[in-house]
TrEMBL record:
Top-rank lineage group of the source organism: Eukaryota
Organism encoding this protein: Neophaeococcomyces mojaviensis
Keyword Glycosyltransferase among record annotations: yes
Enzyme Commission number(s) from the entry: 2.4.1.232
Name of the gene: MNN9
Name the UniProt record assigns to this protein: Golgi mannosyltransferase complex subunit
């Protein structure tokens, strides 16, 4: 027979243990990180998001070593396991801390474009940004202006700083030397221009898509005005590919401010377009928005309601999408949907991307009343 007798010393030990347990419970349940000052809390979140090694994915900001003399040099890069099956792309990405990668092919720098990005309300510590810029005179000027804007933002208040920013320079010649709007939209320039754009988009995508990226927002470099909640608004529909309507502000002949449709690449297909495509050669591309090639597709740009009380959550299925402000779940790109720089079912670039996504089982959607 065995038995245990509790001595005075063991009672003391149990008492101390109980006291420590109570302290732990109190600290765990009744004190939270929200008691910290906002700047300190933001630093903690940014530190948690930062990479520990310079060979980490480019979408993770690298936390540099301290300048103290006793700082040990970094060891060999660690082996890191990424559980992509646990990665989410949900309707509430801001609550889940989902990473968003904003990608922009940039030919000219517009101050309004950068100010619009900085004004986005999605937590900036979860946003990485990537640019690809042609090696032209205009591209060099755009790079210089962009770098100045980046310096100001990344040295400013913590809540405006982005997780990481990467600038790539194109290693191929642009299809057009001039970025004038009249040249960019000539029909005879479209196939070559959009093939070059597709190559730029793919270079940007394949270089910067990180293992923790949940969403990719494609934004054109001349988009200067969006709702500040753009990312949350588009993601709230929980669609694999979704695009809002792009409009242009202008002043009419009477001096009044007006708006008009700008992006005609978001559409529903038509029998006429299918018939035109069936008579084309394998390398020919069907273009939208030109009288010489009337497709009679249903254009999302023409379905918009402009009155103030319009239903901004009105949703429609699409067969082609534009890239002015295109939100894509990262899994769509990871599964192989890219921007074909060649004729893919007689479509190219963003419209070809929508077709490729459909072939992979992903539908594209549009918001005709969300500008």
């Amino acid at each position: 027979m065995s038995y245990f007798r509790q001595t005075r010393s063991s009672k003391t030990t149990w008492g101390i243990g109980a006291l420590l347990f109570c302290c732990f419970v109190y600290l765990f349940f009744f004190t939270t990180s929200t008691d910290l000052p906002f700047d300190q809390l933001l630093r903690q979140r940014k530190s948690a998001a930062a990479a520990a090694n310079p060979l980490s994915p480019p979408t993770s900001a690298f936390r540099k070593s301290s300048s103290n003399g006793d700082q040990k040099p970094l060891g060999p890069p660690p082996i890191v396991h990424y559980q992509l099956n646990n990665l989410t792309a949900s309707a509430e990405p801001h609550h889940r801390g989902e990473k968003v990668l904003i990608l922009t092919p940039l030919a000219r720098f517009y101050e309004g474009y950068w100010e619009n990005l900085v004004a986005l309300t999605y937590p900036h510590e979860h946003i990485s940004i990537g640019f690809i810029i042609p090696k032209t005179k205009e591209g060099n000027a755009a790079t210089t202006a962009l770098q100045e804007a980046i310096k100001k933002t990344q040295a400013g208040p913590l809540d405006t700083r982005f997780q990481s920013i990467t600038i790539l320079r194109q290693d191929f010649e642009p299809a057009l030397q001039s970025q004038a709007e009249s040249e960019r939209h000539k029909m005879e320039n479209q196939a070559a221009r959009r093939a070059s754009m597709a190559k730029a988009r793919n270079s940007l995508l394949f270089t910067l898509l990180g293992p923790d990226t949940s969403w990719i927002l494609w934004v054109d470099g001349d988009i200067v005005e969006t709702p500040n909640s753009l990312i949350q608004d588009l993601a709230s529909f929980d669609r694999p590919v979704i695009v809002p309507n792009c409009f242009q502000r202008y002043v009419d002949d009477n001096g009044k401010d007006q708006i008009r449709p700008y992006d005609y690449n978001s559409w529903r297909d038509s029998d006429t377009a299918q018939e035109l495509a069936s008579r084309m050669g394998s390398d020919e591309v069907l273009l939208e928005g030109y009288a010489e090639m009337a497709t009679y597709r249903t254009l999302m740009a023409m379905l918009a309601e402009t009155h103030e009380d319009r239903d901004k959550r009105r949703l429609m299925p699409l067969d082609g999408v534009g890239g002015t402000a295109l939100l894509v779940k990262a899994e769509v790109h990871r599964d192989g949907a890219m921007f074909p720089p060649f004729a893919f079912y007689h479509l190219i670039e963003t419209e070809g991307f929508a077709k490729m996504a459909r072939r992979l089982g992903y539908e594209s959607w549009g918001l005709p009343n969300y500008f």
